[in-house]
Amino acid sequence: MKMTMHIDEDVLARVMKITGAKTKTAAVEMALKDMARRHKMKELFSAGLGMTPDELKAEFAPTAADLLDSHGLMVAEKKQAPYGRARPARQ
């Protein structure tokens, strides 16, 4: 649908940069879809998904397995540089 709107140029430019949209139309469509998605999520969470707050917290709390990377190492640990060699610091 074609329509005329007055949109703040700075806001539109920021949305285009954030979303990576190539056109103004694409940026507006992405922003509208995201707003509709956020509202739907808010409705679902307000309904509680049929669970108590404690049940929701327990269901979505990270487990020990969530904190491991693909090699079984804790995510918080400092990772080695690729191929086991540290890069020299730039000066």
Q: Could you give the topology of this structure?
A:
Layout: H1 9-19, H2 24-47, H3 53-60
Helix pairs in contact: 1-2
Number of domains: 1
Number of discrete helical segments = 3
Major sheet size, sense and barrel closure:
none
Number-wise, the strands total: 0
Using only C-alpha atoms, the radius of gyration works out to 22 Å
Structural overview:
This protein is mostly helical and 91 residues long. It has one domain. Helices cover 47% and strands 0% of the residues. The chain contains three helices and no strands. The chain is flat and about 50 Å long. The termini are far apart.
Question: Could you list some keywords that capture this structure?
Answer:
91 residues, mainly alpha, flat
Summed up:
With 91 residues, the chain is mainly α.
